[in-house]
Specification:
Length: 268
């Protein structure tokens, strides 16, 4: 009887682990394959984590299931991100989930050194509106681990080599109505740099309504790293727009090209 009572007490305590502390109570799970791109980068690098979900997340019967990324890095460095804890959006079973870890959106730069992370699957009771929600976890499974390396950026004062914008094209279907808008698709060839890889170069897009009217101190939009095209938000269908695109490396050096393209819309 004493053994049964002890076993019951242990099971009850495990089921009542607070949700705020369950990241330290994980047990090994399915050994999920987690890809990290790139494998190493600079303090400002946007890393992308991808994996295939083993189970559906969201509400499952009376339970709420979610996947969570926990990431820890070097300590003792001021002004950088030593750790990250992030709940992933709901997803169906066996689909590929792709989530960026962008230090700019997380509130700073990465610390220099090794980061180690894991993805946990957490299950708990479904919370009902206007009722107290028990913050307990009934099951936590460690799905897999991943890692990436952050390296110090070498001294770099040279901007990327970039040929500038190649085309600015739109197609507004007719007939036209007052107030209708159309996005423009801008394309270019990737820039190169002696320190920053092309996959980590970003592009600042400058727009003006008159030739030569771009304000190069304030980009209209900034792209994600490594892209070679950009679609603007909807612009007035009968408006006239001019575009310049400049490449910027991870050290903040930006090329100074003045290649300007007028937006073309042959469908008007």
């Amino acid at each position: 009887m004493r053994r049964r009572a002890a076993a019951f007490l242990i099971a009850t305590l495990v089921a009542a682990i607070p949700a705020t502390s369950i990241a330290t109570a994980a047990h090994h799970g399915a050994g999920l394959t987690i890809a990290v791109t790139p494998a190493s980068g600079a303090p400002t690098t946007r890393f992308v984590i991808s994996f295939r979900t083993p189970d559906r997340t969201g509400r499952v019967g009376a339970l709420d299931r979610r996947d969570q990324i926990s990431l820890s890095g070097p300590t003792g460095q001021a002004g950088c991100l030593p750790s990250v804890l992030r709940t992933l959006p709901r997803a169906a079973a066996h689909v590929r989930v792709v989530t960026p870890l962008d230090p700019a959106r997380l509130g700073g730069d990465w610390c220099v050194g090794a980061y180690r992370g894991r993805i946990d699957e957490i299950e708990g009771p479904v919370c009902v509106k206007r009722r107290p929600c028990p913050k307990i976890a009934t099951r936590l499974t460690q799905l897999g681990r991943f890692a990436f390396q952050v390296k110090r950026i070498p001294s770099d004062t040279t901007p990327p080599t970039f040929a500038g914008l190649q085309s600015a094209f739109a197609c507004t279907p007719g007939p036209q109505r007052p107030g209708e808008t159309t996005p423009f698709r801008l394309t270019w060839t990737a820039a190169s740099d002696g320190v920053t890889p092309s996959s980590q170069i970003v592009y600042d897009v400058f727009m003006a309504t008159a030739a030569g009217g771009e304000d190069f101190a304030h980009p209209t939009w900034t792209t994600a790293p490594g892209v070679t095209e950009f679609e603007t938000p909807g612009l007035a269908s009968h408006g006239t727009f001019y575009f310049v695109v400049r490449a910027r490396d991870q050290a903040g050096n930006e090329d100074g090209n003045l290649v300007e393209r007028r937006g073309i819309d042959p469908c008007l």
